């Protein structure tokens, strides 16, 4: 038997009975049931519990809306595909709206509310019940995007302005750089390997200065300084090669070429070298010294301090770390006053004034460096005691600590005046150090240098040829005398 139909009939009869009793209580008229409208008004917004049968079947709470119609209660159930279990996922219950007249609105003044929602079931990112309508509506008709559009357009305009300014600045910079005749683009040259070096050797264009070919920058995240190639390496390679025997002629020629190169720089618009070391003295195929790396040390240091460039030790193709050791050891060739100012510059921030060295101070720093290089050429070692750890000395000098100054370890092997010249070059007071012209004249006098090494070799060959010619004449005369004596003896022995 279908009990649900009887339950609803029971609820309807009870509703009518409650409305009749309420009407009688209000009016005291027992025939009020004849006034249908009055009884209907008593049914509006009436709520009472429904019937619960003996089997446990219930019709739920009976709620009448503002038009005296029952507001239904709904529930949503779900049956999985692989199961017969019925699962309730939510419930929809009515709620009367306050201050609402159904006679005017032609509605029951009921709002349906979703309750008892099961989580983790719905097809949403977090598994909760999705909204029945987006917050901005299905067609975004409820949201105003005017300010967002204006902000986006302004941001786009700002980006276009910044890009335009950047492109304009870059174009102006490129036009300025295009006017620099000394600039070389990175794609216009390549670093050759050792097998290709010999085919690229060219004659030097100056006696004692290695010409600066150009600079490549703002390309491929690197800056390259190009100098002319010299085939015989550096002075350091020669003086520390134990297989080579260097006599006084080599010493004098090397020192003469370095002094001539420094004198040229000191009297030129460049004014100074700035980073004179044995590896900054190149040797061409004619055994002539050519100074390189001049006038760039302070610029590179200042650019690095200001954040314009970032220097790194080039060790990728240097298995022995030679590049790094040379850069570290270079502090031994710098004068004390330059090291002091270098330490001060290291402590300063980018936006503070950079301490600039005067041209005289730089020139006197070159004299100090020349003394170190000349000592290495003469003695094939640094001017420090044999027990000195060079690596520790470099670390102390780089950190600004006071260390032992250079000194002549064996004075018996060089001229006393040359000893005094070396000590003058290493003087703590730069004003006491000699000028490069005085250094050149004194070294040429003490070492008896006449011309370059090639000139000396040519004179030696000419002298040897003259001596050989004289020796040939003497031996020819002796041979003629011997022939004459032999003829005379033979004539005496033969019968007449």
TrEMBL record:
One of its GO terms (biological process) is receptor guanylyl cyclase signaling pathway. Residues 454-481 form a coiled coil. The keyword Oxidoreductase does not apply. GO terms for molecular function: adenylate cyclase activity; ATP binding; guanylate cyclase activity; peptide receptor activity; protein kinase activity. Its EC number is 4.6.1.2. Residues 155-447 form the Protein kinase domain. It is an enzyme of class 4 (lyase). The keyword Transmembrane applies. GO terms for cellular component: plasma membrane. Signal peptide: none annotated. Pfam families: PK_Tyr_Ser-Thr. It catalyses: GTP = 3',5'-cyclic GMP + diphosphate. Keywords: cGMP biosynthesis, Coiled coil, Lyase, Membrane, Nucleotide-binding, Receptor, Transmembrane, Transmembrane helix. The chain crosses the membrane at residues 145-169. PANTHER family: GUANYLYL CYCLASE, RECEPTOR-TYPE GUANYLATE CYCLASE GCY-23. This is guanylate cyclase. It comes from Angiostrongylus costaricensis (Nematode worm).
């Amino acid at each position: 038997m279908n009990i649900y139909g009887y339950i609803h009939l029971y609820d309807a009869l009870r509703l009518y009975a409650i409305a009749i009793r309420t009407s009688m209580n209000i009016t005291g008229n027992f025939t009020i049931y004849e006034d249908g409208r009055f009884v209907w008004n008593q049914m509006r917004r009436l709520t009472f519990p429904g019937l619960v049968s003996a089997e446990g079947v219930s019709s739920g709470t009976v709620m009448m809306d503002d038009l005296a119609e029952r507001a239904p209660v709904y529930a949503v159930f779900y049956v999985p595909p692989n199961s017969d279990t019925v699962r309730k996922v939510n419930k929809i219950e009515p709620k009367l709206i306050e201050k609402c007249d159904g006679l005017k609105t032609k509605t029951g003044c009921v709002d349906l509310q979703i309750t008892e929602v099961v989580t983790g079931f719905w097809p949403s990112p977090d598994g909760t019940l999705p909204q029945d309508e987006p917050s901005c509506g299905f067609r975004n008709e409820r949201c105003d995007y005017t300010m967002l559009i204006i902000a986006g357009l302004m941001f786009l305009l700002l980006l276009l302005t910044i890009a335009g300014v950047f492109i304009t600045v870059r174009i102006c910079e490129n036009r300025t750089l295009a006017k620099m005749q000394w600039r070389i683009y990175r794609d216009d040259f390549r670093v050759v390997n050792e097998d290709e070096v010999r085919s690229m050797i060219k004659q030097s264009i100056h006696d004692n200065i290695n010409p600066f070919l150009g600079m490549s920058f703002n390309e491929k995240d690197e800056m390259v300084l190009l100098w002319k190639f010299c085939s015989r390496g550096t002075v350091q390679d020669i003086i520390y090669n134990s297989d080579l025997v260097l006599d006084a002629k080599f010493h004098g020629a090397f020192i003469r070429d370095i002094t001539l190169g420094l004198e040229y720089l000191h009297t030129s618009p460049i004014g100074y070298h700035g980073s004179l070391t044995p590896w900054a003295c190149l040797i061409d195929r004619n055994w002539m010294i050519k100074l390189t790396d001049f006038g760039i040390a302070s610029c590179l240091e200042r650019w690095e301090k200001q954040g314009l460039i970032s220097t790194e030790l080039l060790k990728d193709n240097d298995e022995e770390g030679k590049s790094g050791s040379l850069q570290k050891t270079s502090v031994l060739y710098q004068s004390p006053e330059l090291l002091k100012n270098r330490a001060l510059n290291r402590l300063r921030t980018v936006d503070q004034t950079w301490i600039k060295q005067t041209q005289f101070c730089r020139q006197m720093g070159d004299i100090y460096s020349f003394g170190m290089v000349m000592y290495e050429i003469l003695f094939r070692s640094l001017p420090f005691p044999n027990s000195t750890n060079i690596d520790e000395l470099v670390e102390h000098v780089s950190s600004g600590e006071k260390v032992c100054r250079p000194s002549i370890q064996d004075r018996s092997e060089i001229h006393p005046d040359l000893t005094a010249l070396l000590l003058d070059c290493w003087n703590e007071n730069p004003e006491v150090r000699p000028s490069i012209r005085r250094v050149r004249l004194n070294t040429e006098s003490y070492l008896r240098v006449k011309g370059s090494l090639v000139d000396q070799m040519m004179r030696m060959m000419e002298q040897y040829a003259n001596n050989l010619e004289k020796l040939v004449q003497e031996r020819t005369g002796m041979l003629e005398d011997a022939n004459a004596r032999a003829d005379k003896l033979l004539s005496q022995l033969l019968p007449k």
